[in-house]
Amino acid sequence: MKNAPASEKKNTDILSADAIKSLLPTDFSGDLIVLETTESTNQDAAKIAKTAPHGTTILADAQTAGRGRLGRSFFAPSGGIYMSVILHLNLAFSDAVLITTAASVAVCKAVEAVSSVRPQIKWVNDILVDGKKVCGISCEAVSAGETIDAVILGIGINFSAQEFPKELQDTAGVLFSKPPISRNVLTAEILKNLLAETRDLASRKFIEDYRMRSAVIGKPVRYLEAGVWHEADAVGINENGGLIVLENGLSRTLVSGEVTLRIP
To answer: Domain of 27: which CATH number?
Structure first.
C-alpha cells in the first residue's frame, strides 16, 4: 500500500482525506486513507479489515490491478473514484447479499443529492447513466468460521470524461461529462448514504428505493446460469434483493449471477 499525495500534474480535482472528512457527520469514526496509485484498494483494505474501525475507507486516484465482480479486471485510470469501505455489521452470511443492494441505492442517492443526474441500477449492482455502466460495486466478506468479521465494499466510479479501451466503448460511460462537483464532495456523500443505508439492513427499507431505480424491471433480459444463457422477462425484485424473472411461463428468483438487457 503506497501512501502518497495525489499529483496535480494531470488533474486539479485532488482527492483529500481532510476535505472528505470535513463533509462527513461529526460522529464518523473511521479512518480515511487516500493513495495516489495502488494495485487494488480492496486488497489494501483486506490487510486491515479485522482491526480497522467501522467505515474506514481507502481511496485511490488510480488502480493498476483492480478487480470487480467475479474476479474480473476493472479499468481504473487516474481521475476516477476507487474506494473500499470496511464495514462491521454483525451479519449472518444469509444477509450479506443485502449489502450490495443497499450500496447500489446509496450511490444513486448520493449522485442525486449533488447533481441533476438520475442513475439506474442494473441488477445486481451496476450503476447506469444513459444505458451505460458508470459504476461497479463488489462485496467481499472477511470471515472467521461461520461469522462475518467484516465486509469490504468496493466501489469504482467513472467520474468524468476518459478514453475507454475499445472493448469497453459500447458498454462503459462516465458519470459526468462536465463534473458539477469535486470527487471529494461525491465521495463524502456516498459514505454518508452508505453508512445510513447499511445501519439497519434487516429492515430492508432500501428495497423499494432499489426497485424505483431498477433498469431491468419490465424488460426482457438474458441471464447466465451454469455457463448457459437463458432468456426471460424481469418482473420484480423480492425482499432479499433477488431478481424475479418469468421464463417460459414460470416464475423464478435469481439470487446471483449475470444479467444483460435483451433487445426484443
So the answer is: 3.30.930.10
Is residue 155's pLDDT more than 90? yes
Question: In this structure, are residues 149 and 50 in contact, taking their beta carbons and an 8 Å threshold?
Answer: yes
Cell, residue 3: 501512501
pLDDT category of residue 143 using cuts at 50, 70 and 90? confident
Cα–Cα distances in Å, from 198 out to 41, 74, 85, 123?
A: 20, 25, 12, 18
Q: Grid coordinates 482525506 are at which residue?
A: 17
- Tell me the β-bridge partners of 141: 151
Structural domain count, the chain: 2
Per-residue pLDDT for 8 more than 60?
Answer: no
SS3 160: coil
Note whether 133 and 30 are same-domain residues. Answer: yes
The three-class DSSP label of residue 195 is helix
Instruction: Report how far residue 16's alpha carbon sits from residue 11's, in angstroms, rounded to the nearest whole number.
Output: 13
CA separation (Å) from 211 to 101, 105, 240? 10, 9, 12
CATH number at residue 240: 2.30.30.100
Confidence check: pLDDT of 64 > 90: no
- Regarding whether 249 and 129 lie in a shared domain, the answer is no
The reply to whether 192 and 254 lie within a common domain is no
The string of pLDDT tens digits covering residues 184-219 is: 999 999 999 999 999 999 899 999 999 999 999 999
Find the domain containing 175 and state its range.
Answer: 17-212
**Are 253 and 201 in a shared domain?**
no
User: Is 208 found in the same domain as 225?
Assistant: no
